[in-house]
Amino acid sequence: MMVRTEALTEIARHRADALVVAVYSSAFEWLDISPHPLNFLAVGAMGQASSSALGFAIGMPKKPIMVLDGDGSLLMNLGTLVTIANEAPDNLTHFVGENGCYEANGEHPTPGSGKVSFAGFARAAGYKTVMEFNDIETLRRDLPAFLASPGPRFASLRIQPNSVKRELDYSLVHGDAARKRFSDGLAADMAQQAR
User: Where are any strands of DSSP class E within the chain?
Assistant: First the structure.
């Protein structure tokens, strides 16, 4: 198993100019690890991160799109896997942190924890590339090849629940400043792509 911040730090090294959709605990850590105007923080819309990422991937087909999902969040919208695979956006990379609990809501266990395979769900749905990462060394070694593989790509990240509890300031993700930063960043990026 990995510590989520270590896994996110490794992903951030390969982010380049990707638009990143992040949920709940991952979103707050991602803000510290990879501050960027193209961070779309999907906190409060449990299960919708991958659907939002699909919308961005379809609307911006030349832009790399990453989604930092959670196992509890994805359980709320498993149908998104089939929809993403059907649309088959090559520019979409879907990471799912599997810690077996709803961490942001008191660490209640997720249904089927340790019994279901999210990578198996993605394979059955038809994602073109699916990998499972259980340790940081394998993630460091294989992440570049994974990101270069055909999309949509899906990666399961086996992570530990975060032992360090922090006060979550939701204004960082829902406040006017956060919304304006993303809106301005998206407008600037789309203008640059149109040139």
Answer: 19-22, 39-41, 65-70, 92-98, 101-102, 108-109, 129-133, 153-158
The tens digit of pLDDT for each residue in 102-125 reads 555 555 556 667 778 999 999 999
Residue 148 sits in a domain whose CATH number is 3.40.50.970
Residue span of the structural domain in which 67 resides:
4-194
Give the predicted TM-score (pTM) of the model.
Answer: 0.89
Rounded distance between C-alpha atoms, residue 75 and residue 122, angstroms:
12
Which amino acid would we find at residue 124? Answer: A
Q: Structural domain tally of the chain?
A: 1
Q: Pull the structure tokens for residue 153.
A: 């790509």
Lowest-confidence segment of 16-30, 95-109, 129-143, 167-181 by average pLDDT: 95-109
Helix and strand numbers (H, E) in the chain are: 9, 8
Q: Is the dihedral of CA 166, 180, 91, 71 positive or negative?
A: positive
pLDDT band at 171 (very low <50, low <70, confident <90, very high): low
- Rounded to the nearest 10 degrees, the angle between the axes of helix 79-87 and helix 49-59 is 10
Beta-strand (E) ranges in 55-145? 65-70, 92-98, 101-102, 108-109, 129-133
